[in-house]
Amino acid sequence: MGIREGRPLFSDALGELVELSETHLTLSTARGQLRVPVAQVHRAKRVPPTRRPTAAAVVALERAADEAWPAPTRGRLGEWLLRSADGWTGRANSALPIGDPDRPLPAAVDAVERWYAEQGQPPMINTPLPLAAPVGAELDARGWGARPPVLVQTAPLPLLTSASAGAPPTDPAAADSTGGGAAGGGATGDDPPAADSAGTGAAGAGAAGANPAAADSAGTDAAEAGATEAGATEAGAAEANPAAADSAGTDAAETGLRDGGGHVVASADQAGAAGRRAEAWSGAVVELTSAPSEAWLTVAAGRKGGLPDAARHVLTAVDQVRFAHVYAEGRLVAIGRGTVTGQGRWLGLSLIEVLPVARRQGLARRLIHELATWGVSGGATHAFLQVEQRNTTAIALYQRLGFTTHHTYLTRFALNSQR
User: Fold this and answer.
1) Burial 136-164 (b: 16+ CB within 10 A, else e)
2) What is the pLDDT of residue 224?
3) What is the 8-class DSSP label of residue 51?
4) CA 399 to CA 397: how far, in whole Å?
5) pLDDT value at residue 76
6) DSSP string, 225-281
7) Closest Cα partner for 108 from 132, 129, 86, 72?
8) How many Cβ atoms from other residues are within 10 Å of residue 34's Cβ?
9) What is the pLDDT of residue 181?
10) Beta strand 73-77 with 80-84: parallel, antiparallel or unpaired?
11) Does the CA dihedral 209-215-216-222 come out positive or negative?
12) Residue 271's pLDDT is what?
């Protein structure tokens, strides 16, 4: 905000509203995240979303995602891709119908069904929308079912590598609260979680003193690693039950901590334990390796329901790949996976998983920051992830980090063949 001839001067900020508190609002702009005091906002209005990505952009991103999650058994139907990985995850066991299948559409779907029958698997087809809408219409006519919609989200890597991207959030409740998704389980669209979700909207604000160049911020598999976590918190001093503390007796009341009303909210032992846990999380170490440790694979297996040999191929058969390990007090408390594909442009984030005991401590944010920094060193400029539309908690985290939806897809399956 400035003053000229006694009149205030305002600047404009255009972006997506990612956070609103009593004192500040945060916009994700093309130049980074911008935090503006509410008192300096003169006017705000909803702005129509930008136009959809081109078909070529959707195809390029889908092919980059396929490279990042490579099925060991593959086939081609013209330009369509046929993929099988012993049933491990939907993406690695479904056809990708982009391009020309070299035959009429009904015959192409028939060929997909035959190919999967030869693999001993039910046929599935991933349909990027709206690109593959004609394929979807053909599958509707055949009575195929659909898994929950998946959002393919993207973010410029500078958003994820800024200093604030890896810093602990000011609101611990807002961090790692995805439970089974970004912070708790990864970002994928293969998992069947619950709830339904909303998209994102753009907002424009006329902010006094807004500096579009001020970048603040950051940015999980999405559909395979998904972000389908359900939030979990560990009880600490602030979460203790005052009634239970009061009932602990005089000794506890004398040695405990009291709130402004004189109620015991935590014993000294509880407060000390909470403090030690906070120190452990702040001292957590993120390590990136070119191969997953056995502990990493154990966490991933728990998330994805086991790891057959085909799964290990999917996870490791990428030229540029890093496995993130987050250690606190000598034990593994979070994992993640990053790949660089799509002719070096795209950093793919997947299997972002924080163990329940370590959630809501900003570890997913730190993990993503480290993978993003590695991606930049490999030449990548943008990140992508995939997350089920109904996983609203994970989506909220990604939104705060600067991710927006590029396109969506549905995994379709033949009802008479579904396992």
Assistant:
1) bebbeeeebeebbbbbbbbbbbbbbbbeb
2) 36
3) P
4) 5
5) 98
6) T-----------GGGS-HHHHHTT-HHHHHHSEE-TTS-EEE-HHHHHHHHHHHHHH
7) 132
8) 24
9) 41
10) antiparallel
11) positive
12) 46
Start-to-end Cα distance in the chain: 61
Residues 6+ apart with CB under 8 A from 414: 113, 122, 123, 124, 142, 144, 145
**What local confidence, expressed as pLDDT, does residue 218 receive?**
31
Given this model, what pLDDT does residue 48 score? 63
Listed in sequence order, the residues at least 6 apart from 71 whose beta carbon sits closer than 8 Å to its beta carbon are: 83, 84, 85, 92, 93, 310, 313, 314
What are the beta bridge partners of residue 407? 152
pLDDT at 270: 45
3-state secondary structure of 364: helix
Q: Consecutive 10-residue runs of the chain (419 residues): their mean pLDDT?
A: 65 74 76 76 73 91 98 98 96 97 97 97 96 95 96 96 62 45 46 33 36 32 35 30 35 35 41 53 90 96 89 97 95 97 97 92 94 97 96 91 95 78
Q: How many CA atoms within 13 Å lie on the side-chain side of 394?
A: 41
Q: pTM for the full model?
A: 0.68
Q: What tokens does 65 get?
A: 């995602």
String of DSSP letters for 152-215: EEEEEHHHHHSGGGGSPPS-GGGSS--TTSTTBT--BBSS----------EEEEEETT--TT--
pLDDT the model gives residue 12: 80
Please name which of 412, 389, 419, 415 lies closest in space to residue 153, comparing C-alpha atoms. Answer: 389
The tokens describing 405, both together, are 């939806």
- What SS3 state is found at 221? coil
